[in-house]
Amino acid sequence: MTSVLIVDDELFIVELYRDILQLRGYKVVGTAFDGEEALKKYGGSQEKPDVIIMDHRMPIMNGVEATKEIMRMNPRQKVIFVSADVLVEKEARDAGAVEFLPKPFRMDDLIEKMEKIAVLRR
Description:
The structure is a single chain. Helices cover 46% and strands 21% of the residues. The protein has 122 residues and is an alpha/beta fold. The protein has one domain (3-121): Rossmann fold (3-Layer(aba) Sandwich). A five-stranded parallel sheet has the order 2-1-3-4-5, with helices on both faces. Helix 3 (63-73) links the parallel strand 3 (51-55) and strand 4. Helix 2 (35-44) packs parallel to helix 3. The chain is globular and about 30 Å long. The N and C termini lie close together (12 Å). 34% of the residues are buried.
């Protein structure tokens, strides 16, 4: 079962991702509402998630900076970056994101990206 850490500052979005991913058989191992919280949870976790869904615009620390820090801790971590700002895609990928989804997107698009990453892990 693929494990997921969800990072987004909107509670509704976190709950939506969590509910849909769990219905599709994914294990949500944590949530964070800003980049700094994501780093604390990621760094403090013995078992790292298979995938992190990372939002861009968040208080305290944005998703690009959080992704850079997570990749310093674990260069093999898989991050799906999501943002309404399509101009940030290159920066997100340069930071280490393996996938990018422009908001708004269909949840099926997220599931497709998750499945693609699961295949890469095999």
